[in-house]
Amino acid sequence: MRLLMILNLLMALSSAWAATADAAGTDAATPAAPDRYAQAILIYQALMALDQANATGNYSVLRDLAAPEFQAGHTAAALAESFAGYRRLNVALAPTVLFEPRLTAPASVTGAGQLRLTGYMPTRPLRIGFDISWRLVDGRWRLIGLAVTPTAAGR
Fold first, then answer.
1. Which residues is 136 bridged to in the sheet?
2. Given this model, what pLDDT does residue 155 score?
3. What span, in angstroms and rounded, lies between the C-alpha atoms of 124 and 104?
4. Helices then strands (H, E): number in the chain?
């Protein structure tokens, strides 16, 4: 129940942040990187979408949440194949919402307007590394790249 409340809060905050981004006109050629709270929301949303796709074997929602160029290059079936190893290992990403993301590099927005966040979630026994990219589409950051790497948590 608590996880559902957290996810509902994240979705509400994301919608509010997207509306603020629209009002601020951040759909410019090179938008500013969102603040750390919005960055955390983007990371949580990507990880939860992947977790739900892995749990159900249905990657269509993950694909539909992504930017058009990601959708064009990845079918739901191809995504299922790409993440088959995660399903076999039964890697649980849901606990990551209880931790603050730790970036290993500063957030960056390229000249092409792509936001990239690289870091990890300090979960145990597996630490969840991530390298995720988004592009602003109609005032919303939409997924364009997703790499998740579970590794043994160090002490």
1. 141
2. 52
3. 18
4. 6, 5
